[in-house]
């Protein structure tokens, strides 16, 4: 990967999400028997402009052939090499209230090959759908034993930072934050840690507020275009 | 608003989210007694570059004074005029499974002034936290009576499109989609409707998958910078 990519490449979350999308489409095309694909076909299937598709691939050091397009097998190999595809993605949940329990019991997540291997809470509790619920003092042991890197934070807001720090201490590096606390790490890390943590936030209140504003603007100010 | 804004302005969801963020900060500054603010102060508080702050305000037709900054009261008035601020945001939920119930019972949403006024499901059910759960055939009546524009879709994937169309028919214009179905409306609307619907998606599976990739890349390809 190092040889074919630019050392100064700036990968973003959006590019990675798009690459994962291309990968799903490429695998479907391969299963149908296709060998080559054009950026315009991939763009159509992904709902993305072909110029963006070509730019994303050039980041991987992959250049298509104007007449022949891209070789599907090469694209799949390159993207998988970068994204680190696994058969099953393992994660833990800290905070087993209503949202935490809903996620542990989610059939949709299982279908998407996401396996919540344990829940953690302040108080001990019975397993949910065969997923054990431990007290938080067991976190380090379980995370290390199962080599888990990904964790969901679904605790009340007031506990968010403390739980984040505990999870990071235990070895978690990727966080899905369901609280409305804007947790920062890395350069902006409040405790100055050296770990490069990645934090994605799902702020349902903010998403709903954004919707109210968008609908209001669409109705009252139709001259202000929204893309 | 029309007089002070550019008719060709392209507002995006991200700009609107930032404006809502500035608004919260401006109100806090006002409550402390401040009258004026510089873009750099607002940028610091919001974690956003001052050039972006100035660009966002110029979209509203607001220009600061290099020496004096912006007048806080004017900013608040202009942003509220655009975003359509209300004391309480009302919404419905369709699909009262685990996620739907968790949202209806969420104390965090209440604290953020979001009031789920009703839930809808295929089968009748007892009220949850005083929120009535109706069968879906009551949707149009309740939505019209309460003048609701915002709805949450938390049904299984296979029911997503049908439920979306039913909600749109009932008068919902802003959708928070918790399924992993990529629902399109507007120009890409499969049934060619004229309503300008806005659809925000919360795809938890995709968010988690994205985290796995980000952590993998951060560990294995530290030369590929991620912003």
UniProtKB/TrEMBL annotation, chains A, B:
Q: Does the keyword Transcription apply?
A: yes
Instruction: Name the InterPro entries on file.
Output: CoA-bd, NAD(P)-bd_dom_sf, Rex_DNA-bd_C_dom, Tscrpt_rep_Rex, WH-like_DNA-bd_sf, WH_DNA-bd_sf
- Gene3D superfamilies according to UniProt: NAD(P)-binding Rossmann-like Domain (3.40.50.720), Winged helix-like DNA-binding domain superfamily/Winged helix DNA-binding domain (1.10.10.10)
Cellular localization per UniProt: Cytoplasm
UniProt KW keywords: Cytoplasm, DNA-binding, NAD, Repressor, Transcription, Transcription regulation
Start-end of DNA-binding region: 21-60
Main localization category: cytoplasm
Residues involved in NAD(+) binding: 95-100
For the CoA-binding domain, which residue ranges apply?
Answer: 84-182
Pfam families associated with the record: CoA_binding, Put_DNA-bind_N
Describe its function. Modulates transcription in response to changes in cellular NADH/NAD(+) redox state.
Complex formation: Homodimer.
Instruction: Quote the PANTHER family the UniProt record gives.
Output: REDOX-SENSING TRANSCRIPTIONAL REPRESSOR REX, REDOX-SENSING TRANSCRIPTIONAL REPRESSOR REX 1
Family assignment from sequence similarity: Belongs to the transcriptional regulatory Rex family.
Query: Which protein are we looking at?
Result: Redox-sensing transcriptional repressor Rex
């Amino acid at each position: 990967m190092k040889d074919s990519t630019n050392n100064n490449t700036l990968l973003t979350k959006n590019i990675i999400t798009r690459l994962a999308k291309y990968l799903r489409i490429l695998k479907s095309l391969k299963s149908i028997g296709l060998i080559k694909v054009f950026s315009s076909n991939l763009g159509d299937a992904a709902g993305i402009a072909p110029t963006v598709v070509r730019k994303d691939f050039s980041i991987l050091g992959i250049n298509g052939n104007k007449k022949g397009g891209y070789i599907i097998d090469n694209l799949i190999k390159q993207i998988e090499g970068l994204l680190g595809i696994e058969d099953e993605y393992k994660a833990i949940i800290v905070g087993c209230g209503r949202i935490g329990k809903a996620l542990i019991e989610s059939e949709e997540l299982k279908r998407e090959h996401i396996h919540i291997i344990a829940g953690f809470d302040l108080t001990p509790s019975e397993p949910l759908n065969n997923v054990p619920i431990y007290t938080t003092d067991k976190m380090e042991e379980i995370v290390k034993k199962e080599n888990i890197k990904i964790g969901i934070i679904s605790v009340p807001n007031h506990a968010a930072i403390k739980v984040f720090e505990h999870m990071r201490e235990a070895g978690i590096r990727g966080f899905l934050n369901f609280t409305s606390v804007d947790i920062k790490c890395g350069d902006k890390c409040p405790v100055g840690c050296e770990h490069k943590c990645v934090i994605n936030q799902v702020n349902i209140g903010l998403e709903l507020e954004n919707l109210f504003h968008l609908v209001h603007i669409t109705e009252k100010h139709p001259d202000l275009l929204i893309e």
